[in-house]
Specification:
Layout: H1 2-51, H2 55-73, E1 90-93, E2 99-107, E3 113-123, E4 128-135, E5 158-167, E6 170-179, E7 185-195, E8 202-204, E9 218-223, E10 230-247, E11 250-272, E12 284-296, E13 299-303, E14 306-307, H3 331-338
Helix pairs in contact: 1-2
Length: about 350
Amino acid sequence: MKKKKSLKNCCRHAALLVAMLMLTTGAAAQRREAFVKYQSELQPLMEKVVHAPTDNERYNANELFVQLFDEALHAEGSFQWKWDFGTYVSVLTSSDRQFRIITWPVVRDNGEYECFGFVQSYNPKSEEYDIYVLNDKSDEILSANEVILEPENWLGSVYQELVETKHDGKTYYTLIGWTGCNSLVQRKVIEPICFRSNSSKPQFGQALFRREKNLRRLVLEYSRNALVNVRFDEQIIRTYENKKIKKKGRVYNMQVPREEKVKMIIFDEIAPMVPGMEGLPQYYAPTGIEKAYVFVNGRWELRDNAQGRLSDPKLNKEFAPLPKTQPAYNMQQDNERKK
């Protein structure tokens, strides 16, 4: 009798597991079907945002896109869905699944850009993902390098890269973004993003730049006709080491160069193309000098001697020559000369 009851119980458990599996599979299939539908409705709206012939048509389509996308992102399981709008919309997700940031521009007839977006971030209290709408207030933000911003007061950008770095067990997030601004000026930013303690609300800009006290983000504004490179990559950096070298009875302090390959945010230095145009970004362009931020002990440290190497060695530039070295002061030799 006991064996028969045991067998019946096993059958019941197996039947229950199968039923639960079918329910789970069925729910997953329903969610997938819902997101496929959202994607199919969102795609043509984004096509209108990009290609519609007038400002009114583009903004009307964008308003519908924002409303529908907001609804889709609030649906259960949306963080797991891979949204894909080609090159029109940037979707960046942190490797630890702490957050996702989605950005895109609307281009007006006069060449001005307005950026839109969402942040979907994990709330440790509710153990769910919260949604924040990004509002581009670029025209109202003063001293953009120095201020901490929030979703409702955002320096609009289409983010191209999400850089993740670690120090003492903590993960730091840095965004690299671009926007067209207007018909004369474009902008690139290197911008840390963090989240309030025990909250999901994002903050844009953070004091992560070593020895640059008031810097919260690096903002590069320059001519629409110029090409400025900003990227996270493993590239070459030159450091100098002071060494004492004895030569012909005299001691010299020599700077010995050492080149090493490290991960860095490498970017072009910019300056006015025409003297006297300082402060007018439409006249700014790369100077030919490359700089870099290297992440050291939880901070971005500026390095001047950086160089992005090309795959063809013949096209690579040489570093600037070393400064002339001066002999070190030698007390013994000085005393001998005085005798």
